[in-house]
């Protein structure tokens, strides 16, 4: 491999023409969670215009080697806190590309008065972990990843789980089959309340979007399938939820969205009944695998997933840096 010098690496702002490179870069570095051109384009189009944002491409001789970005985080917004990310093509790593991108990102966020930076990296990506540690980042949160092979999943407890919740007056339905003219507001209200209990980095506030913004985000996804969202109902109210979402780049796989139960209805078997219902339907439709993630401290949900046969994989680390001086 030919070496390159820092002087031969140039940076420029990203343009729409860089979309294919960005998709290829992501998929080369994170093949377990591939993306598509349509998904990246949709994400770009949905970004709030009033948030600070910058993306640069590092290249050598006109060939893109990596990208760096900073951005405000919509669901954990603070005007002086930013998510930062540096990605470099595997064959170009160790040649100063990441250092050059980081130096530029750091100067940009300093100029914006940044008080805290966030970054994420998978724990088995040793070079990435070291890169962040060398720049003052420490682990603040650990997100467990797990995968379930549906053909091997022990789903035989579905009937008993359904009988238990029905005996308590609950009904399970798909969100598509939830025939309530106010169902969008009810899902929003449930999600807002349940999200308050989602673990997040220390000292951070969860900033829930407006009803309009919430549904704008959901409705922009052409692959959303409401018949794979399962809800628990009682007296007309939505009190539990378990979502499965198609993965465009992996048609045999589903990702787990939000699984939660309203505080007043917990410890009644609803989460297990919802998960069993969702996984049984996924297997019936011919899907092969379901992936999920949970905060390392979410012991109840981790216990349910373990009992259902999910196998733990390398976790994602949420790393932060507070001191920029």
From TrEMBL:
Residues 9-156, 185-325 form the N-acetyltransferase domain. The keyword S-adenosyl-L-methionine does not apply. GO terms for molecular function: acyltransferase activity, transferring groups other than amino-acyl groups. Pfam families: Acetyltransf_1. PROSITE patterns: GNAT (PS51186). InterPro entries: Acyl_CoA_acyltransferase (IPR016181), Bact_Acetyltransf (IPR050832), GNAT_dom (IPR000182). Keywords: Acyltransferase, Transferase. CDD domains: NAT_SF. This is N-acetyltransferase. It comes from Deinococcus irradiatisoli.
């Amino acid at each position: 491999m030919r070496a390159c010098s820092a002087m031969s690496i140039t940076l420029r702002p990203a343009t729409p023409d860089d979309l294919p490179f960005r998709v290829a870069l992501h998929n080369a570095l994170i093949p377990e969670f591939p993306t598509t051109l349509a998904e990246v384009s949709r994400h770009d189009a949905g970004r709030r215009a009033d948030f600070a944002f910058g993306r640069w491409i590092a290249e050598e001789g006109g060939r893109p080697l990596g990208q760096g970005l900073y951005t405000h985080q919509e669901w954990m917004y603070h005007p002086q806190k930013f998510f930062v990310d540096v990605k470099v093509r595997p064959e170009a790593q160790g040649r100063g590309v990441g250092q050059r991108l980081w130096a530029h990102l750091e100067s940009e966020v300093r100029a914006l008065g940044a008080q805290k930076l966030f970054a994420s990296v998978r724990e088995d990506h040793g070079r990435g972990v070291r890169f962040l540690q060398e720049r003052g980042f420490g682990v603040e949160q650990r997100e467990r990843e797990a995968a379930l092979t549906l053909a091997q999943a022990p789903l035989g407890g579905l009937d008993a789980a359904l009988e238990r919740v029905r005996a308590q007056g609950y009904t399970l339905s798909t969100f598509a089959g939830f025939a309530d003219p106010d169902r969008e507001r009810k899902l929003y209200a449930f999600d807002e309340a349940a999200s308050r209990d989602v673990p997040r980095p220390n000292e951070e506030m969860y900033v829930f979007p407006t009803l309009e913004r919430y549904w704008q985000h959901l409705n922009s996804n052409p692959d959303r399938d409401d018949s794979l969202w399962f809800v628990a109902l009682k007296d007309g109210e939505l009190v539990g939820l378990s979502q499965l979402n198609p993965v465009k780049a992996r048609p045999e796989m589903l990702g787990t969205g939000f699984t939660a139960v309203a505080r007043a209805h917990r410890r009644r078997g609803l989460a297990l009944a919802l998960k069993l219902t969702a996984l049984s339907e996924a297997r019936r439709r011919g899907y092969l695998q379901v992936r999920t993630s949970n905060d390392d401290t979410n012991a109840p949900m981790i216990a349910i997933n373990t009992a259902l046969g999910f196998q733990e994989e390398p976790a994602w680390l949420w790393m932060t840096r507070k001191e920029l001086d």
